[in-house]
Inverse folding.
């Protein structure tokens, strides 16, 4: 929907029903020119479309397969929950429960109402900001206003018409309407703007509610969506050209974090990934992106991740109401029936699954009355505490001891650890660190319990083939600082077979020895031939030859092909 | 009607000249101030302006001549027959020899700039490379040697790395080793007037200088894939002193073992150098 991008109108509403249209009038005025140009833009896009470009994907949150396999009423309940608490990409919902998300916006209280300047269409007032005055400076005209208390509470659609940062005088266009359910709105006629007199000193309001999230949405749709998808499922339009495939955030799991094995990713980790990119993958560096845009998009990715995990956890909890097995069984029966028909044998078509699904639906209707809300609440509690914990200092891995001096003895100790059965590094990364350990050639069980993966080799949580890293390449996806490697070894790589060694298997000193060894593999890999060494030395100025021999750093590394599998 | 057409055709030429004259003030000219920020860039601009002047004079002259002929024909009474002439040897020699001389002048005049860029001043590889710049889909990965060491063709344990951020000292010619990690890219710094293709399998030395400290856009000028537009980076030119200071800090940051915080804000090294720019 390029139309929605054209408007690029950041807004978020505190909508009970998320499909409530929140007007974009304020910004549309400035798009008069764009309105004239739109036929032209469409024409060009049509041309591009016929020239082989894929049409833009719909901007929407798509459900997981496991959600679509739920009994129809269970699926409806899950989708309604998500719609209520998260909305759609075009109509984001600020859900107060998610205290771990900075939605943006400035909380304020009405100090006094200027009755003379106010009218039924516009309220002029002085406000005090709750220690977010820095935000107040950036308030923009047209920003949505949400009333937290007072007579206009629940009314949505009010907007900032004018703002003076120095005097804290805000003028609010009272365009809002009540979002009352249908039966109530019959009493109050549709245009139920209440008279301005009802705004009183002490009323609390949030100005530009969800502003940061909405900005993040715009940045995300522009820079990230085409790989990571609108839902964050890693299935954007360009994803299919990529190896390794883009991350699917919906499990709340990110690979390269600074946190303990069981913890979520921190904002700082996401910022580091935005700044540095992930070498060896298609994730590029966004170093030069505007800092506020970076902050906004990080918040949006965290929010998408929470939304995705919320869906996953609720759907998993409703596993009893899944039609997956029924459908699989039916498909099997149908296949057997068709096969029998082909052979000319007499056979019965499989029984319809409709009655079984109906039973599921009945069961769920009961469950919905008694337990469903509890599941939603528990999931929200769980997620909020998990993401909150990630930001605490305790969840970040800080080595207890400084790095062991990077000398030959330490590297040798690391090498022996690498080859030991304590770590079993070599089973995946290979005896020489070339990523060719035997585990890469074995068949592995799928975690879902549906037997083995169809292909031999290691797999990640998302079911993608994941060859062990070739340590001789010198490409460190999670960063090449010693502390980065320490954390990889300490907490493993989340969502992958790389295990966590910290705390239990290895001591701090042992981890540092391993770090020193791993960092040296690039330069001392056994594959280096004598001629490589000589040719490197020949290229050096005479004075430097000794030095290079000391560092033993002569190895011709190939240029990493961009598409090399992770 | 004939008069209308002669005016109509002339108005397009007049519009072209007017727009060209107005272009710099409309921002339709070279980026930033319009002035090149490298010494070779200024000489290249000099060539550009000389050629622009020559072509402008020729354009205006021919358009005036054309307009004169059109107008003369337009005001002639309709019944008057046109005179037919065939060939004027002198005229043909003149309009062949003069452009020939002009072209020869350009060909000889530009040789000095070309030689300065490619041969005389700094033949490829003659200046010590300051960094290796690897273009890949879709970013610039940059490798610097450790402070006080030369850049080695192969990575060294103490190398310093950045992404999309090429740091150079200001005021002296520097060279980079340009390579590609995958497909063909092009290293383009518009304000420095430097453009060089990056070819897979080849290391290409590129020299340039920055006359003033500042942050200059570095973009990819070769359509290299769907993410081509993402290859936006910067060349950050600072004083020699700040450049060395930044490198020392970057070495410390890269050796971070999570214990001794070498810098309270991990990403602040870059901002410091930037803010301390004059
Ligand atoms: Cu490129």
């Amino acid at each position: 929907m390029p139309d929605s991008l054209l408007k690029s109108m950041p807004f978020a509403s505190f909508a009970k029903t998320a499909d409530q249209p929140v007007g974009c009038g304020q910004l549309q005025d400035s798009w008069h020119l764009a309105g004239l140009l739109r036929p032209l833009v469409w024409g060009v896009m049509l041309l591009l479309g016929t020239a082989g470009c894929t049409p833009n994907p719909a901007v929407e949150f798509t459900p997981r397969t496991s959600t679509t396999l739920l009994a129809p009423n269970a699926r409806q309940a899950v989708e309604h929950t998500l719609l209520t608490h998260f909305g759609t990409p075009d109509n984001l919902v600020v859900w107060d429960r998610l205290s771990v998300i900075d939605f943006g916006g400035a909380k304020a209280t009405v100090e006094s109402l200027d009755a003379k300047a106010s009218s039924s269409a516009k309220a002029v007032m002085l406000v005090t900001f709750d220690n977010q005055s820095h935000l107040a400076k950036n308030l923009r005209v047209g920003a949505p206003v949400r009333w937290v208390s007072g007579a206009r509470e629940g009314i949505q659609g009010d907007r900032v018409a004018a703002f003076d940062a120095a005097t804290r005088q805000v003028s609010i266009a009272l365009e809002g309407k009540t979002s009352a359910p249908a039966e109530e709105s019959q009493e109050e006629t549709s245009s139920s703007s209440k008279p301005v007199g009802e705004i009183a000193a002490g009323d609390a309001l949030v100005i530009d509610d969800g502003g940061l999230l909405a900005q993040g949405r715009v940045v995300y749709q522009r820079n990230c969506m085409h790989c990571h998808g609108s839902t964050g499922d890693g299935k954007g339009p360009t994803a299919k050209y990529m190896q390794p495939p883009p991350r699917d955030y919906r499990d709340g799991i990110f690979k390269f974090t600074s946190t303990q094995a069981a913890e979520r990713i921190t904002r700082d980790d996401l910022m580091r990934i935005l700044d540095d990119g992930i070498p060896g993958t298609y994730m590029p560096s966004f170093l030069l992106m505007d800092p506020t845009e970076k902050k906004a998009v990080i918040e949006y990715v965290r929010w998408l991740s929470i939304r995705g995990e919320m869906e996953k956890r609720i759907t998993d909890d409703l596993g009893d109401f899944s039609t997956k097995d029924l459908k699989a069984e039916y498909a099997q029966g149908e296949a057997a029936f068709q096969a029998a028909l082909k052979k000319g044998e007499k056979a019965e078509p499989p029984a319809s699954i409709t009655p079984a699904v109906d039973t599921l639906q009945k069961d769920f209707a009961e469950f919905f009355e008694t337990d469903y809300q509890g599941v939603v609440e528990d999931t929200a509690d769980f997620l909020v505490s998990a993401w909150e914990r990630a930001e605490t200092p305790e969840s970040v891995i800080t080595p207890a001891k400084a790095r062991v001096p990077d000398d030959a003895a330490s590297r040798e100790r690391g090498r022996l650890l690498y080859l030991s059965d304590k770590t079993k590094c070599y089973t995946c990364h290979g005896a020489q660190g070339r990523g060719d350990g035997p585990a890469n050639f074995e068949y592995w069980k799928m975690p879902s319990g549906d037997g083995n993966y169809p292909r031999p080799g290691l797999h990640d949580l998302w079911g993608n083939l994941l060859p062990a890293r070739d340590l001789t390449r010198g490409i460190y996806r999670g960063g090449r600082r010693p502390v980065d490697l320490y954390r990889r070894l300490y907490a493993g790589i989340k969502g992958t077979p790389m295990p966590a060694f910290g705390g239990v298997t290895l001591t701090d000193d042992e981890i540092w020895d391993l770090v020193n060894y791993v960092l040296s593999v690039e330069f001392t890999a056994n594959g280096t031939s004598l001629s490589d060494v000589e040719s490197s030395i020949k290229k050096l100025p005479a004075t430097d030859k000794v030095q290079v021999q000391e560092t033993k750093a002569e190895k011709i590394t190939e240029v990493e092909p961009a598409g090399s599998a992770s | 009607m004939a008069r209308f057409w002669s005016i109509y055709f002339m108005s397009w030429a007049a519009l072209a000249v007017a727009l060209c004259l107005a272009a710099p003030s409309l921002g339709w000219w070279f980026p930033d101030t319009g002035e090149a920020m490298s010494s070779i860039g200024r000489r290249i601009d000099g060539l550009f302006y000389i050629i622009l002047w020559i072509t402008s004079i020729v354009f205006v002259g021919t358009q005036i001549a054309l307009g004169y002929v059109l107008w003369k024909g337009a005001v002639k009474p309709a019944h008057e027959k046109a005179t037919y002439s065939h060939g004027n040897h002198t005229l043909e020699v003149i309009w062949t020899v003069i452009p020939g001389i002009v072209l020869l002048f350009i060909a000889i005049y530009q040789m000095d700039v070309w030689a300065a860029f490619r041969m005389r001043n700094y033949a490829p590889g003659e200046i010590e490379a300051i960094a290796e710049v690897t273009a890949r889909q879709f970013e610039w990965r940059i490798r610097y040697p450790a402070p006080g060491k030369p850049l080695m063709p192969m990575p060294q344990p103490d190398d310093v790395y950045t992404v999309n951020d090429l740091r150079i000292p200001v005021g002296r010619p520097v060279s980079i080793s340009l390579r590609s990690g995958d497909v063909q890219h092009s290293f383009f710094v518009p304000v420095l007037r430097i453009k060089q293709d990056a070819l897979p399998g080849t290391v290409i030395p590129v020299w340039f200088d920055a006359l003033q400290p500042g942050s200059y856009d570095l973009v990819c000028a070769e359509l290299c894939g769907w993410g081509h537009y993402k290859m936006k980076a910067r060349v950050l030119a600072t004083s020699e002193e700040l450049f060395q200071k930044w490198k020392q800090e970057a070495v410390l940051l890269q050796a971070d073992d999570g214990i001794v915080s070498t810098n309270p804000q991990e990403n602040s090294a870059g901002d410091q150098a930037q803010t301390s720019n004059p």
Remarks:
- Residues 262-278 of chain B have pLDDT under 50 and may be disordered.
- The two ends of chain B are 62 Å apart (CA to CA).
